[in-house]
Amino acid sequence: MNQASSTTTSGSAAGMHPREFVAFIAALMAVNALGVDLMLPALADMGAQLGVATANHRQWIITAYMLGFGSGQLVYGPLADRFGRKPILLATLAGFVAASVFAAGSQTFAALLGARVLQGLMSASTRVLAVAIVRDRFHGRQMARTLSVAQMIFFLVPIMAPTLGQLLLDTLGPWRFIFYALAAFAAFVLAWSSLRLVETLSIERRGALSLAALGSAYRLTLTNRFSAGYAVAAAMTFGGIIAFVSSAQQIFVEEFGMGDRFTYLFAACAFAMGVASFANSRLVERLGTRLISQAAVLGLIALSVGHIAVILLGVESLVSYMLFQALSMTCIGLCGSNFGAMAMEPVGHIAGTASSIQGFITSVGAVIVGSLIGQSYNGTTLPLAIGYLGIGIAVLGVVLVVEEGKLFHARQTP
Q1: Residue 413 clears pLDDT 70, i.e. is over it
Q2: Which of 109, 136, 155 is nearest to 202 (CA)?
Q3: Rounded Cα distance, 333 and 365, in Å
């Protein structure tokens, strides 16, 4: 898509003012963010009521959702490239509402995990379609900037979600009302989509839903080193977020004894990612996706080495943990939208299918990385710090392979 067509699409196809469009994309992303973060204060209550004896097993309430979220993305891209973005979005948002109601009524831990997988399967469309709809309108640095602005709004959700979840627990009581709240928010986004979103994929740009077409799209997405490489890099950095989210309650409550302040401390760390996205939205068109993301990876490595040293020296405290965690989340936030934009750039003409494949790689890879780190929690912050160092080194290796050993250059993605 050339700049002229992008501008035309931007002004008319979505049927929204640019600010409303960004808010809408952020709301789509927020469906998934709320699905993860709203229930964090209630994990202990869920585990107690549903008979979960091992504290680390409560993390599966998060990872089960993410497994469904990752797997579902393989389906929605091809469907959206064939039938358009809007009908797939409406159907899956309705499915998320139903899955949330089912989760609220779960009587066993297994049933809750099943409902969480179903929630993830339904919300997977929000990630695929948010990226595809933005790619329908923008490309390159402009796409990265748009995604950064949307993510800046989106990152307010993790800041507010645990506090909102705690408020629901305090005012309504049972943890089940958290899932009813998720259903209500998804219903709101469903209504917004139905009334305001105009289809962004024109009839002439829709592809055939055939094995040959899918095979060609999969082959292109998986063999292009920028598309596949930066999707893998995004998976590892996203894994750092999942590791933190999964173990945050245990770290703050069990290690530091901050149960009454958990939601505020979690919000402070999440706020760092919002600041990073805001900074990225202002700087990316001037500095470029490569310079910002590569500097952030090196920063994550340096911070992790410093954090490990503090822990091994026996001087770790709540203050030091908060400082290192917030700065590490800032680095991760500077990687996310930039890696996503660079991965999508060479496959924009098959944005829906490519977004599905990349989303699958990113989400399932993140679940694997995040679960390995989260399940290694041993009552200290050392496993998380070591995990972040491993993520930083691995991502740097992937970037060096993708960029053929060159860092901090303004190369254009083919």
Answers
A1: no
A2: 136
A3: 17
Closest-CA residue to 143 (of 288, 273, 358, 333): 288
Answer whether 371's CB lies under 8 Å from 171's CB: no
Could you tell me the end-to-end alpha-carbon distance of the chain, in angstroms, rounded to an integer? 14
| Token pair 């290694």 in the structure block, residue | 376
Our separate counts of H helices and E strands in the chain read: 16, 0
User: Is residue 38 within 8 Å of residue 178, measured between CB atoms?
Assistant: yes
Number of Cβ atoms within 10 Å of the Cβ of 319: 8
Half-sphere exposure of 294 (CA within 13 A, CB side): 19
Supply 368's token pair.
Answer: 């694997």
Determine contact, residues 133/85, Cβ cutoff 8 Å: yes
**CB 354, CB 217: distance < 8 Å:** yes
Alpha carbons 40 and 38: distance in angstroms, whole number: 6
Q: What's the pLDDT score for residue 139?
A: 66
Answer yes or no: are the C-beta atoms of 327 and 361 closer than 8 Å: no
Q: How far apart are CA 369 and CA 10, in angstroms?
A: 37
Element (H, E) at 314: none
Q: From CA 334, how far away is CA 44, in angstroms rounded?
A: 32
Q: 346 near 354, Cβ under 8 Å?
A: no
Q: How confident is the prediction for the chain on average, in pLDDT?
A: 85
Identify the three-state secondary structure at position 112.
Answer: helix
C-alpha to C-alpha distance for 251 and 40, rounded to whole angstroms:
12
Asked if residues 134 and 146 have their Cβ atoms less than 8 Å apart, the reply is yes
Place of tokens 């082959």: 219
Nearest to 239 by CA among 392, 37, 61: 392
Euclidean distance between CA atoms 249 and 165, whole angstroms: 13
Residue 275, burial from CB neighbour count under 10 angstroms (0-12, 13-18, 19+): middle
Say how far apart CA 147 and CA 121 lie, in whole Å.
22
Give the closest residue to 112 by CA, choosing from 104, 123, 120: 104
How much is the pLDDT for 65? 93
Q: What is the pTM of this model?
A: 0.72
What pLDDT, in 10s, does the model give residues 103-124? 999 999 999 999 999 999 999 9
